[in-house]
């Protein structure tokens, strides 16, 4: 029923600017995901070890996710950066638009909350409140579509939690709502994953270990396949 309703809205011209996920597939019908390795260039992120920073870990994970998924032939992966360079927020958002992405995942490494804080967290942008009284039909439809994307983002986030739990048992810090700009700017399902804490010894060691990086990348890749 929801699909019929959205096709009606398209036919009436009320939702042209807000395509559904199925419309965002590429020309071969393959699902598209944009992976965003946080930081880059002068924006190093948190320090992991000597000359290794968050930006290095997120890029390594993103490239491994891309390799894993493209090996399946089922998902096309675009990265917001493929090298150690600075990328603005607007560039990251434009990448998702130009790729006609079905899903956007921003990868980070956590820090703070004390040296004992550990584990992974998944964030979604949060649901807006009710549409203001007197808003036009276009704004009402826009909010409905945004809610659909948020629901899909939460559905994906739960799949991601399940796969990450297999790599980091009993280290799931939960699904969290937060006004994170990178995912708030998007009108597609989008999440941020904090893969572990640079400030906690075991998490830091795990994220620096190539075999563990591969396991994390494959867990994220499997969650994407399961989502689509």
- How many domains, in number, for the residues? 1
Helix content: 40-55%
Tell the overall outline: globular
**Assembly of the depicted chains:** single chain
- Provide the CATH top-level class: Alpha Beta
- The secondary-structure element order is HEEEHEHEEHEHEHH
By DSSP, the count of extended strands is 8
Which CATH architecture? Answer: 3-Layer(aba) Sandwich
SSE-based structural type: alpha/beta
The biggest sheet amounts to: 6 strands, mixed
CATH fold description? Aminopeptidase
Could you name the ranges where pLDDT drops below 50 across 5 or more consecutive residues?
1-24, 129-134
Q: In angstroms, what is the radius of gyration? A: 18 Å
The chain-level mean pLDDT equals 85
Strand order, biggest sheet?
Answer: 4-1-5-8-6-7
What's the N-to-C terminus distance? Answer: 20 Å
Number of continuous helical runs: 7
């Amino acid at each position: 029923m929801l699909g019929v309703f959205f096709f009606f809205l398209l036919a009436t011209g009320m939702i042209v600017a807000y395509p559904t996920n199925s419309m965002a597939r590429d020309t071969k019908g393959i699902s598209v995901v944009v992976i965003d390795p946080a930081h880059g260039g002068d924006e190093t992120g948190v320090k992991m070890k000597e000359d290794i920073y968050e930006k290095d870990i997120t890029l390594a994970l993103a490239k491994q996710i891309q390799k894993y998924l493209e090996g399946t032939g089922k998902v096309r992966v675009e990265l917001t950066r493929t090298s150690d360079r600075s990328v603005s927020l607007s560039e990251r958002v434009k990448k998702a638009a130009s790729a006609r992405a079905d899903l956007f995942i921003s990868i980070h490494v956590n820090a703070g909350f004390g040296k004992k804080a550990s584990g992974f967290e998944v964030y979604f942008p949060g649901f807006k409140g009710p549409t203001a009284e007197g808003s036009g039909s276009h704004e009402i439809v826009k909010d409905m579509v945004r809610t659909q994307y948020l629901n899909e983002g939460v559905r994906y986030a739960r799949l991601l939690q399940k796969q990450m739990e297999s790599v980091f048992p009993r280290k799931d810090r939960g699904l969290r709502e937060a006004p994170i700009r990178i995912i708030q700017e998007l009108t597609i399902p989008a999440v941020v994953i904090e893969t572990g804490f640079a400030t906690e010894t075991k998490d830091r060691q795990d994220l620096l270990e190539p075999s563990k990086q591969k396991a994390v990348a494959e867990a994220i890749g499997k969650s994407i396949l399961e989502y689509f």
